[in-house]
């Protein structure tokens, strides 16, 4: 049986879920096809061993790296997609990110649209996703048309101390934008309980601003919305001209199903959307759907990131640690001509998370248990922009396996940023208290499997020879196919991509509504 809809959206995460929300008022029949199910609410949601050691919520998928080695990517197939697990740090890109930027390893290309084009959609996304923060504190941010809907999440004492020390030292720390449903003025009625299980865990009490809670669930009682779970889209078929997607093929519970829609929107995340397009090759699109330019799958990015645990003699009693950001090295400085990136906090580490994330580095504290080490750590996340290199790409082999070929870029900038963090740690008195030798930090470069910030495999642009999508995120080569997940980024900046994906989905949603009117 074939079911027909006005719009079919493939994937219900940051892009697809937000798009569905923006289209619901149109009255058009919308179908959301989601490979996963609802994420179960259970005690394991907040159990570090289940989440980090057993990887309970990570897909069993394996991908293959450039050396032919299989690895298990940290992807999560649930209603809400990666946002079920995300840290909900909802940053805007900075205005220069939309222009061309010179990096040590090459050029980060300009976007076809400017920060001003995105600003209204950033504001709308911040309101929708209930972001807490304070515009105006970070000198690198662009203009904003609306203040955040919620005040910033307060710093706990240790973070406040770090903030004050940094400010005294001439840095410009700011409140990180947080997508959590915390009402600090009325804690008894706050959905969020301000716990330590936010970053990398699902929220058991549904108080994280994820795409499931904010965008998908609120529209499921509408007559014009259908969500089909456990529906893995495997292929898109076109009409004989190759201009129109006519069939969406789905594998569900071992059976094949087919759906049709006037408009089809792919939002399965950067790697999986590329996979679906490449797997949909036909006579008119011999190298994959919408791939006449040979750009589908290319320019894969996921940030050059490091997680750092700075160990101190005094314990760090912070519960919710993600309240602070530093962008003093986001743009070139007087000492270094290239941008280095963003510094922010990650969720408070614990012994299980440390063991799960880096099993071969648990030797570092012979006289300390991991629990001691985690209790004494202050935990940072460093993000440097990686470049959209054509050779960094997603391909499929003849059996349909995903290959991700990737080489780092901008390592020098990432190392400089780490150097700046060390100066910060010294400045805030942490190095003086290190339990091991001075300047010892436990650090971890995020590997290829840590694809949380995956982006860039179907970039948007004005030239069909060098981009897959036009500025409305419609495929240049098709009349009814759009892509609204993280694939569309022509370059990734150095802040977390979630808010930009949500803002773009609202922008594209506005275009699709007008098109259907
Ligand atoms: C642990 C973690 C922490 C993060 N922290 C942050 C943060 O603090 N701030 C931030 O901005 N970003 C963060 N991110 C990244 C952010 O979550 C992603 O950038 C964002 O969710 C990507 O949106 P998307 O729409 O491209 O993909 P997703 O949100 O992953 O959505 C893709 C959806 O498509 C579905 N799907 C996949 N294949 C198919 C198929 N074949 N058929 C049907 N459905 C399919 C998936 O199940 C999923 O629901 C984090 C991610 C992770 C994993
Ligand atoms: S801090 Fe709040 S939003 Fe995050 S997991 Fe805890 S209760 Fe949920």
Briefly summarize what is shown.
The protein has 517 residues and is α+β, with helices and mostly antiparallel strands. It has helices spanning 14-23, 48-53, 115-128, 157-168, 211-216, 270-279, 351-357, 370-375, 411-427, 498-516; strands at 2-10, 30-33, 63-64, 70-71, 101-103, 106-108, 173-175, 225-228, 232-238, 245-252, 255-266, 304-311, 324-326, 342-345, 377-384, 393-396, 402-405, 441-445, 481-483.
Folded structure, characterized:
There is one protein chain. The chain is built from ten helices and 19 strands. It is 21% helix and 19% strand. The protein has 517 residues and is α+β, with helices and mostly antiparallel strands. The two termini are 28 Å apart. Strands 1, 2, 8, 9, 10, 11 and 19 form a seven-stranded mixed beta sheet that branches. The structure holds flavin-adenine dinucleotide (FAD) and iron/sulfur cluster. The site of flavin-adenine dinucleotide has 40 residues, from α1, β9, α6 and α10.
Distance between the termini: 28 Å
Helix content class: 10-25%
Question: How is the main sheet built?
Answer: 7 strands, mixed
Q: Which descriptor suits the 3D outline? A: globular
Report the uncertain regions.
432-440
Radius of gyration over C-alpha positions, nearest whole angstrom: 22 Å
Average predicted confidence as pLDDT: 93
Number of strands: 19
- Spell out the helices and strands N to C: EHEHEEEEHHEHEEEEHEEEHHEEEHEEH
State which percent range the strand residues make up. Answer: 15-25%
List of distinct ligands in this structure: flavin-adenine dinucleotide, iron/sulfur cluster
Helices, by number, come to 10
């Amino acid at each position: 049986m074939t079911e027909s809809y006005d719009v079919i959206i493939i994937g219900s995460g940051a892009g697809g879920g937000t798009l569905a929300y923006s289209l619901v008022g149109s009255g058009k029949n919308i179908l959301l096809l989601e490979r996963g199910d609802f994420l179960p609410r259970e005690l394991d949601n907040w159990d570090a061993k289940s989440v980090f050691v057993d990887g309970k919520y990570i897909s069993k998928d394996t991908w293959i790296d450039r050396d032919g080695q299989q690895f298990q990517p940290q992807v999560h197939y649930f209603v809400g997609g990666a946002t079920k697990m995300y840290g909900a740090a909802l940053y805007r890109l900075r205005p220069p990110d939309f222009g061309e930027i010179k990096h040590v390893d090459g050029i980060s290309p300009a976007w076809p649209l400017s920060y001003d084009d995105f600003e209204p959609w950033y504001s709308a996304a911040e309101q929708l996703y209930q972001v807490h923060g304070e515009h105006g504190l970070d000198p690198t941010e662009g203009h904003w048309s609306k203040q955040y809907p919620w005040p910033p999440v307060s710093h706990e004492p240790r973070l406040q101390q770090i903030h004050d020390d940094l400010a005294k030292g001439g840095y410009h720390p700011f409140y990180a934008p947080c997508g959590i449903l915390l009402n600090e003025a009325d804690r008894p009625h706050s959905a969020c309980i301000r716990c330590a299980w936010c970053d990398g865990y699902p929220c058991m009490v549904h108080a994280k601003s994820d795409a499931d809670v904010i965008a998908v669930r609120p529209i499921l009682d509408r007559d014009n919305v259908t969500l089909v779970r456990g529906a893995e889209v495997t292929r898109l078929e076109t009409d004989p001209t190759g201009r129109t997607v006519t069939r969406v093929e789905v594998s569900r519970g071992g059976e094949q199903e087919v759906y049709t829609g006037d408009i089809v929107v792919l939002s399965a995340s950067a790697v999986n959307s590329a996979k679906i397009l490449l797997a949909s090759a036909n006579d008119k699109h011999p190298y994959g759907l919408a791939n006449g330019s040979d750009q589908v799958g290319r320019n894969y990015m996921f940030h050059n990131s490091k997680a750092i645990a700075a160990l101190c003699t005094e314990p760090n009693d912070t519960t919710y640690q993600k309240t602070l950001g530093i962008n003093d090295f986001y743009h070139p400085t007087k000492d270094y001509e290239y941008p280095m990136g963003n510094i922010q906090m990650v969720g408070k580490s614990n012994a299980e998370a440390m063991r799960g994330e880096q099993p071969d580095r648990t030797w570092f504290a012979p006289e300390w248990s991991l629990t001691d080490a985690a209790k004494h750590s202050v935990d940072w996340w460093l993000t440097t922009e990686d470049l959209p290199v054509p050779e960094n790409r997603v391909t499929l082999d003849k059996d349909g396996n995903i290959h991700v070929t990737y080489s780092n870029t901008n390592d020098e900038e990432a190392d400089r940023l780490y150097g700046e963090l060390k100066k910060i740690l010294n400045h805030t008195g942490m190095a003086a208290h290190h339990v091991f030798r001075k300047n010892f930090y436990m650090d971890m470069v995020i590997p290829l499997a840590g694809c949380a910030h995956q982006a860039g495999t179907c970039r948007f642009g004005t030239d069909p020879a060098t981009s897959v999508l036009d500025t409305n995120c419609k495929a240049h080569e098709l009349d009814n196919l759009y892509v609204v997940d993280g694939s569309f980024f022509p370059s990734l900046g150095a802040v977390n991509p979630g808010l930009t994906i949500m803002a773009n989905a609202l922008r594209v949603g506005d275009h699709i509504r007008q098109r259907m009117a």
